[in-house]
Amino acid sequence: MRLAGAAIRPRDPAALPRLALVVVAVAVLWPALRLTEFDPATLLDPANARPMGRLLAQFLPPDVSLEFLALVGRSTLETLAIATLGTALAFAIAFPLSLVTTMSLSLSAIGPARDAPLRRMLRYPARLALIVLRAIPELVWALLFVRAVGLGPSAGVLALAITYGGMLGKVYAEIYESASNRPARALMEAGAGRLQAFLYGVLPAALPEMLSYTIYRWECAVRASVIMGFVGAGGLGQQLELSFRMLNGAEACTILATFLLLVLLADALSALSRRLLA
Amino acid sequence: MLQARGLTLVRAGGRRALGGIGLSIRPGERVAVIGPSGAGKTSLLRVFATALRPSGGAVEVLGANPWTLGGAARRRLRSRVGLIHQTPPLPPRQRVVTAVLAGRLGGWSLARAVVSLAYPSDIAGAREALARLDLADRLFDRCDRLSGGQAQRVGIARVLYQRPEMVLADEPVSALDPALANHTVGVLVAEALARGNTLIASLHAVDLALAHFPRIVGLRDGRVLFDLPTADVNGAQLETLYSQEGYLPTQHGKPFALPELKLPEPPRCD
Prior knowledge:
Number of strands of chain A: 0
Radius of gyration of chain A: 25 Å
CATH architecture of chain A: Orthogonal Bundle
CATH class of chain A: Mainly Alpha
Oligomer: heterodimer
Largest sheet of chain B: 6 strands, mixed
Largest interface: A-B, 31 and 39 residues
CATH topology of the largest domain in chain B: Rossmann fold
Radius of gyration of chain B: 19 Å
CATH superfamily of chain A: MetI-like
Distance between the termini of chain B: 34 Å
Strand order of the largest sheet of chain B: 5-6-7-3-8-9
């Protein structure tokens, strides 16, 4: 104790930053509330509730004719294919970029390599690439690709690959950084290369989180493929758009129920993977 | 050959961890570094392991100045030095066999490293290293299923498997009970004798250091207080070394038999 007066009560040094965080959160949320004129009461207004009720009444009973179910089945497979292929391509884009951008494999802490400036210079364009990829919503990419490759699922796959590649890359890099960097650093201190240190020091801790986030993204991709279907990028969404356009509530209901099943499936898959990897 | 001249290290925040260390250690020597906590033992070992760059002075590791080498050459140099960490840097979800095999990553190609993740490339080698620390039965367990003492010994097994020319052990047995600690330091010493590698260990327990090492370096406040053959270390020197602690740390937490040592306080838990 260097302080002469031992009676001084120690203060929590983290209290001030915490208070600042609360102030910032309020300062951000309050204007947002005003700007969006968010008011849940408008939903309950009878003038709004009645047309809503009529629309919902059309939904029942759902269309379960064999012919339509076969159509929905085909579209479901198409949607799953779009989401799966899109997520797989997104992974192929994201993984290398995440390795380039992450700070957790930085050697500079244990003595700069000769090519350190070059690597630093490489990190910023890669980070920028990730931002550009995810800054433009998949819907916009889909519109673009429908023009480029024509109506159909491949536009959806490309749009998902690009946007989700950006998202996965950013989140992967953050997962690496949230894991302890001690194991990887210890390996590099024993002469391991950066990639080796990643595989043996970072990946074991990051893998479950990466997997569960990727499966969540796949679930998002299933839902996103619906919206992209509205602009002609294939799958269940295109089917839903047709039903809506023909004001066929029963068909729409069947398709929405299929979505629910798909999301439940994704949820079960994610839970299973987490249990297997725990 | 390990050499340090006027070695200083200033940590982030301006704290001076090492204040001018001069040491020269020949290949094959076995040296124990002792001193109160905060004396700079870990910093010194990390500088010797080329894991920390000194702020001033010169350091020469295995005959080379690591900080004038290029990246690739420094990597090769690092693969010839094995650092045993006090808290083993093992990823919790990794299997013991993989954690041990990771010791030789410095000598492996990337392709071999990838293949070995799919199927461990040298199960027998990892098992042999673990067997010397009585842990062969934990080969395929996950690291987070180990007790603290077992994890610490897996960290040692990794460095045994690495087969470096110089072993730097930072409190390698701090989580082990006295009998096991004695045995484990014995394994490190036997390995050093058999392979002729240098062994430098920082030890909290003074009796362990005196029993296993022919040369003792006493470190206090980032400086070398004494550097002597074990036979020449006397009670007065140890008393000065640990005067701020007020007691002499040993394996059993009991005061060491030194008549001139005053014991104003019971040992703290730290």
